[in-house]
Give the backbone structure.
Amino acid sequence: MEAYTGFAEVYDTFMDNVPYEEWGAYLCGLLEEYGIRDGIVADLGCGTGTMTEYLAEKGYDMIGIDASEEMLEIAQEKKEKSGYEILYLLQDMREFELYGTVRAIISVCDSINYITEPGDLRQVFHWADNYLDPDGVFIFDFNTEYKYREVLGDQTIAENRETCSFIWDNYYYEEERINEYELSLFIREEEQGRDGYEMYRRYQETHYQRAYTLEEMQELLEAAGMRFLAAYDAFTKERPTDTSERIYVIAGKGERA
């Protein structure tokens, strides 16, 4: 099934425990470290635009790219409220197109893990290299195999809110290195039933993410012509370890003869 259709409607509700301010400050720190304090930044897998809006507030000219029309509709609503001049594009990151080069490209909240074929991920890196300014950087994060195997794998996560609830079953297939999310959503309808009781509409989605090692990321970046610059245990400046759950990678545009 196509991911982020019904879930788009309530995505921000269930993500309200994510410290976006802290994550955004960390990301801005990495951008500034590489001299990128302004200019155009593309956000791959931008979702409902929360991080895109954060970076726009910090002065970057933002482009948000996502393959989910439903998620982008919500991002557009945020844009109308904030007034930021963000360009949103309905595109698959495996074949995204821009109108010119950009200072930086980012992809956070494990969007990269949704690219389950290494060849497709190499293509994402190729396009990132193609659209970066000569001194630009590509910053992305990814969930590690340790997180899928030891933290998420075969776990059930459930939440009940005032207007919606979800049940999220995880299954990690170690040989294929694929984590499958079976998501059941129950979203309250505006209209009540004939008997006066509240009605809920049920949605079901299946999501797949792939576990990559840092070494694989480096190899795929280099195969796409990019330069690996650094990797950190998420939200720190420490080197990743065997128990890192999320890793940030910084890559530069490949050198041209």
